[in-house]
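Collaborator request log, item 7. Partner lab (contact: R.S.) asked for a structural prediction of Replication factor C subunit 3 to inform their binding assays.
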Amino acid sequence: MEKYTANTRFCIIANYTHKLSPALLSRCTRFRFSPLKAADIRALVDEVVQKEDVNITPDAVDSLVRHSKGDMRRALNVLQACHASSTPLREEGGQKGGPVERDVITETTIYECIAAPHPDDVRFVLKTLLETSDVKSCLQAIQQLKASKGLALADILSALGEELAKLDVPSQTRVAWMEGLSEVEYRLSGGGSEVVQTGAMVGVVRNGAELAAVKAK
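Returned to partner:
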């Protein structure tokens, strides 16, 4: 790089700068790009949907844009994967070149592709935790949901945290929830047992709900 700096400039694009050589980084000027706005991602997704004739519902597009979190590449990768899965396999000996009738890409298709809990599942978890006082029943219901839908606790924690933040509760309850769930997520990332940490999540939310009930009296 130093040999040709008089007439050459190098552009290195990376997601994680810590994986690059320190000697290389010391000779570079860093530019950090913020996530794209939802409107910009939607504009390109709509363009791809139109040009590639993707059979997708408006709700699915909304979910795709929301879960891309400002990452255009992620949005297009998920859209491509869903489009490929919606294309039926050609029967052996079938006619080639004929019209292909693809399945409709729905909101459920998007959530299944990215392995994220569906909003209905998140609402079920939230309702169970807030309205069921028996901790054992809560734990059994959530474990059954995880097993039947193949959900990971880390994804449930992220979605549940967003829903809890929307509730109108005393500040003490909100702090207890956020501190408790962050501790559960930390232990889970460190290799903690999913079963044990699922129980911890149930305990955290139930303690916060009982604290809110006491404050309301």
